[in-house]
Amino acid sequence: MSSTEPLSRARIAPRHRLRDTLVLAGLFALVLAGLAALAAATGWEETLAQIARLHFWQFGVLLALSLVNYLGRGLRWHLFARHLGLDLRLGASLRHFLGGFAMSVTPGRLGELVRMRWIGRETGWRFARTAPLMLVDRASDLAAMGVLLGAALAFSASGIAFGLPVTLLALAGAVIATRPALLVGLADLGHRLTGRFARLFASLRRAARSLKAFSSPGVMGLAGLLGLAGWFAEGYAFHLLLMWMGADIGVAKAVAIFIFSGLAGGLTGAPGGVGGAEAAMVALLSLEGVPLEASIPATAIIRVTTLWFAIAIGFAIFPIAEKLSLRHAHAVENR
């Protein structure tokens, strides 16, 4: 590495961070503006009265349940990393996983691939070797959310329009992403159809074959439990919030609406599902008879204490992860 490269990185990084911060602020402002418009249409007094019913300790409970989700999935990330062969401590895995939340509202959450950069700097592993970690983690989230949504719909008194198709899509995505032979076949098919991008499809085949490291029933069983516990914790937080606001629709229905809204928002392709998830949540709560003066603040609060809380944690840890990974990379270069 040349002596000018670290300097150029230092100049570029602040610009990227400023751009990402402005994008996040813009998205957050748009969502708040939309919810504020709905609140104004229904009457500010009723909306503010619902928010005033909450105490600080209740916000603490909501944030604590979100932390259960983040830490549970962080432990799952570490489990996958170790089975892939990465010699990383739990602290490093949690740093990578939580720091990646800063990029959660990039299209398709592709920005979270920054975790692979940090791992590459600290271990020397190339992206092709670590890509299965991201793939199996995303597939595990889809599987956990699909199972939870299906179970919640089964136990709730009424269904959700398109609930079954979304559940099946989530489970299908999880199955495809964790079947090495199927992914290799899809990569071969893509290469034959396009006749191009040979190196890309070769990398995809190598990454797919690496998924065999996670095929153990014990690994996938423990990973599944961590994912289910984490996502249920956030769904249960939504139930508590609605109950505190006097709009108790039952645990099963609250979990179903929370999970469905998250998946539906992701299907829109919007960064972090922003906009789509909130719209789905307000609409579904309205169908359950929850008035707008309760559904709007409930939606705003649960999204702040889940998605935006995760992003805040990510922004706090991101510079630490970046600094430590660069320190590891420089240490290796200077040996």
Automatic annotation (TrEMBL):
The organism's lineage is:
Bacteria, Pseudomonadati, Pseudomonadota, Alphaproteobacteria, Rhodobacterales
Q: Indicate yes or no for the key word Zinc.
A: no
Q: What is this protein called?
A: TIGR00374 family protein
Pfam families named among the record's database cross-references: LPG_synthase_TM
Which UniProt keywords are given for this protein, alphabetically ordered? Cell membrane, Membrane, Transmembrane, Transmembrane helix
What is the annotated localization of this protein? Answer: Cell membrane
Taxonomically, which superkingdom? Bacteria
Q: Tell me which InterPro entries the record gives.
A: L-PG_synthase/AglD
Transmembrane residue ranges:
21-42, 54-72, 142-162, 168-190, 211-232, 238-260, 267-287, 299-321
Q: Which organism is it from?
A: Sinisalibacter lacisalsi
Keyword Lipid metabolism listed:
no
Q: What is its main location?
A: membrane
Topology in the lipid bilayer is annotated as: Multi-pass membrane protein
